[in-house]
Amino acid sequence: MPHFIDLAVAGRAGLRIILDEAHRRKAARAGLPKGAPDADAPLAGHVLAMIFEKPSTRTRFSFDVGVRQLGGSTIVTSAADMQLGRGETVADTARVLSRMVDAVMLRCANHATIEELGDTATVPVINGLTDLTHPCQAMADMMTVEERLGRPVEDTCWAWCGDGNNMAHSLIEAASVMGFELRLGVPHGYDPDAAIVATAGARGGTVDVLHKAAAAVDGADVVVTDTWVSMGQVPPKDKLAAMAPFQVTARLMAAAAPNAVFLHCLPVHRGEEVTADVIDGPQSAVWDEAENRLHVQKAILLWCLGKIG
Ligand code: CP
Ligand code: NVA
Description:
Elements: H1 11-28, E1 47-52, H2 58-69, E2 73-78, H3 90-100, E3 103-107, H4 111-120, E4 125-127, H5 135-149, E5 157-161, H6 166-178, E6 181-185, H7 194-202, E7 207-210, H8 213-217, E8 222-225, H9 239-243, H10 250-253, E9 261-264, H11 276-279, H12 286-304
Parallel strand pairs: 1-2, 1-3, 3-4, 5-6, 5-8, 6-7, 8-9
Helix pairs in contact: 1-5, 1-12, 2-12, 3-4, 5-6, 5-12, 6-7
Bound molecules: phosphoric acid mono(formamide)ester and norvaline.
């Protein structure tokens, strides 16, 4: 049973299978009520456990509705309401859940926690965000770019602007696995994790960490950013000032390709990482991007459970 803890496990072929399945299923159910099952209901009889250590809107609703559309059901809980919150080990939790559910989605702070769950679980474990990575969001981002630009993500060039955070890390992995160019404009002191960048380079990816927003965005097909302060982070007091030159503005978007797509995983802080005219403007694909969490995670579940690929 493969986990979906990091993008590299599926490899380029696996990620392509997942993206194609997501596009296909989205088209096939156009016009259906959101709670109606897909015609084949491939996860009938299956149950997904969803465990949250941190808040969530998109991840919670997209997995829950997605599993219903696949014909299955979910159990949603906060980690604090489980014995995990009183010190039961992650490994023992994995052993118990593996006897009761068909897959587990976890959103947690420490990446080591989800790796520990994956080490012991005998059912697939899906990463719903850690402080290190957010692979499901990167999949939705790639799906959205393919929809908007009408060509494979492999043939696009992306620019990240802002913090070298969990989203940046998953896009670095995505770029190096799928083989698209990614330039990151980040302030000095807020670079992405050096080991993740090095692994991407060793994989043969074209991932460049720059320290100028304009240089990152120059001619890019996709401009993507995220909050400057992630969940649970206590930022250094000069962080927002350091980030300010990396704000995505209409002027910065004008340096990208003429039909460039703007992405943001949400939630957004208008006037911080992006101006309102950009995120609410015609180049923004953020609402499609949010919806595509639903479609791509259905395909991720099917891949993990051996129904596709
Ligand atoms: N983008 C994203 O993961 O949103 P939530 O925190 O609302 O799940
Ligand atoms: N970097 C953000 C992503 C939220 C979906 C965070 O971790 O809070």
